[in-house]
Amino acid sequence: MRDESRKKDKYFDNLNLRKALSYAIDGEAIIHHVLGDGSKIVCGIVSKGLSSNPKTVKDFVADS
């Protein structure tokens, strides 16, 4: 699924460019100096803890 803004920018189709940008951005520094609220870096679209149910202690990662 591609949205309209992504179709316009073909540079981001390059996996190596996306990796380089990911490595170049200091997420810890952004959290510390900009947000300053103790946020955690997310390494995917689902943050840690959202894939499990605390009542059943079931982890749904394998099901997805």
Task: Describe how the helices and strands are arranged.
Blueprint: H1 4-8, H2 15-24, H3 27-35, E1 52-53, E2 58-59
Antiparallel strand pairs: 1-2
> Mean pLDDT across all residues, rounded?
75
Count helical runs.
3
The backbone outline, from C-alpha atoms, is flat
Indicate the percent of residues in helices.
25-40%
Strand order of the largest sheet: 1-2
How would a crystallographer describe the biggest sheet? 2 strands, antiparallel
Tally of structural domains: 1
What is the CA-CA span between the terminal residues? Answer: 18 Å
Q: What is the element string, with H for helices and E for strands?
A: HHHEE
In total, the number of strands is 2
Describe this entry's structure for a reader.
The chain has three helices and two strands, in the order αααββ. It has a two-stranded antiparallel ribbon with strand order 1-2. The protein is flat. The chain has 64 residues and is mostly helical. The model has no long low-confidence stretch (mean pLDDT 75). The chain has one domain (4-59). The protein starts with a helix and ends in a 5-residue tail after the last strand.
List keywords for this structure.
64 residues, mainly alpha, two-stranded antiparallel sheet, 3 helices
Summarize the model shown.
The chain is mostly helical and 64 residues long. The chain is built from three helices and two strands; from the N terminus they run αααββ.
